[in-house]
Amino acid sequence: MPMKLAKTAFATLTILFLVAPLIAILPLAFTSSVILTYPVPSWSMRWFHELFFADAWRRAIVNSLIVGTGTTVLATALGTAASLGLRNRVVLFRGAVRTLFLLPMVVPAVVLGVGMQVLLARFGLTNSYMGVIIAHTVVAVPFVVVSVTGALAGIDERVELAAESLGAAPATVFRRVTLPLAMPGVLSGAVLAFATSLDEVVLTLFVAGPNQRTLARQMFSSIRENISPAIAAAAFLFIAATLLIGLAVVLSRSVLAKRR
Amino acid sequence: MEYPLAEFIRFDRITKFYGSLCVVENLDLGIGKGEFVSLLGPSGSGKTTLLMMLAGFEQPTSGAILLDGAAINAVPTHKRDMGVVFQSYALFPHMTVGENVAFPLQMRGLGRAEIAGRVKRALDMVQLSALSERRPSQLSGGQQQRVALARALVFEPRVVLMDEPLGALDKQLREQMQLDIRDLHRRLGLTIVFVTHDQSEALTMSDRVAVFNRGRIEQIGTPRQVYDEPATRFVAEFIGETNLVEGVVEAVEGAEATVRLSSGARIVSAVSAPVASGQPVYLSIRPERVDLSETRGEARNVLETEVADFVYQGDHLRVQLQNDAHPLIAKLGRRSREFPPGTKVYAAFSAGDCRVIAP
């Protein structure tokens, strides 16, 4: 019994440790004060108002949505294609190639950022949405690859062979069998890609111009310039959006699972 | 041996290597139209690989596969028009039973009304019409396999290939499905190539059985032939249970040979492959063909021996016999009298009940 108690206590503490920063910042989103500190003098929605109506913040939100959507589409397409390719036993050094796809996860973002800046300048893509989307895609692809590879591994290869023997050409097998079965993995990959883009600061610092300031980037710079509670409001928005997306994924997965 | 049906499938000197491993070696096999042929053998004997090559999932390293006289090596799987049933059922988990069965018809571009009608008939045939809206995961193993069967038959394929389709089912269900499939084969006149490692399954269902060993066919023939007239030691041991006794050919006379055992006893036996005097051979004697008696009797072949063990096995009595030279097993009908261990007995069998096999 004491063991069980100790386990529960430990688990609670760990969870607390993980969510403490969130708990610390969230109430400040509703402060009426102009500085980001406790105690909260009184509650107000003024910083959300600021977020949606001050020009800099509004544009940052729109930019994040543009870049996030672009990254999601590009990373999901590339990552899914890569995972499909990596299924093929004919690929030489399959393990090594897979590791290569996951590399951006572990390479320091600063290093990627510098390289990206130099490279994008070559192609005249600095200070453009496309440049930021490409940069974000590089770090988002690994998440898609991991998620889609997992989903593909769960597909019985013989189901695809059966489809072929029943008269389906390879493209039809993909469209009618492989893709629908991998869909849960593709969906969570897409969500992870979007979340990665939303969250990305370092690469954005290197490659984005003033016109592509994303929400994360805006938070980062405003925390240096003036510690405004608008940051807390933005953080609140982030968390709410993430939870919503997460919920959507869980729901869609359970709907897909029920259809099995 | 020639089969009286028009040849429909022909494997012409098929060889298949995986890397340096030879899984099928220079194999020839013809299958008639409407014939049910089982490929029987232990795992790794090349039977499944041969089926996969026929389906187009694998390419032979050399040799040709002919269907109705035309080489199909270069024809991709989806144009071969063969229904394949896998051991793992391989149903589409994201489609209902009805959608699964409709799939091959959709691939052939049939109209909605026609598809609906044919799906219904196919599901009626396997008695699953009531479940057409279910997902495969909501069905039992036997039901899933019947869906797979309906899906493989609904488009009236030229050949039906089955890869250990009943291996995942329990014994009772398996035996029922064996009879169901055999019945479908007869009713619809299907050409079926059936892979199994279960010899009793092969004997129950097939017109002919091809016994595989190490990438070669050891023997092909009707169930009766492969059981009663095994051509090789492998076939004799793999199909059913047998007593193998070593001996030397003393004389050959027509289809019979006299073999001298190490004990000095002489046995007259039927011969399936040509042997010569002086050649060392095995005798294969099926345990259920051995009669036991305490008197010598009139039979042509009699061995003097002693009961070592006597086991009651429900449907038969199993007797372990021992003399110095050759242990024997006899299976007696359950109405037979009992022989307590230690009883001196005569084991008797006719010349037709044993076979000479070249080692």
UniProtKB/TrEMBL annotation, chain A:
Every ABC transmembrane type-1 domain range: 61-249
Any GO BP annotation: transmembrane transport
Membrane protein topology class: Multi-pass membrane protein
Matches recorded under SUPFAM superfamilies: MetI-like (SSF161098)
Keyword check for Plastid: no
Major localization listed first in the record, in broad terms: membrane
Domain of life: Bacteria
Cell compartment(s), UniProt: Cell inner membrane; Cell membrane
Keywords on record: Cell inner membrane, Cell membrane, Membrane, Transmembrane, Transmembrane helix, Transport
GO cellular component: plasma membrane
Membrane-spanning parts: 61-84, 96-120, 132-155, 227-251
Family note: Belongs to the binding-protein-dependent transport system permease family.
Protein name per Swiss-Prot or TrEMBL: Putative spermidine/putrescine transport system permease protein
Annotated organism of origin: Shinella fusca
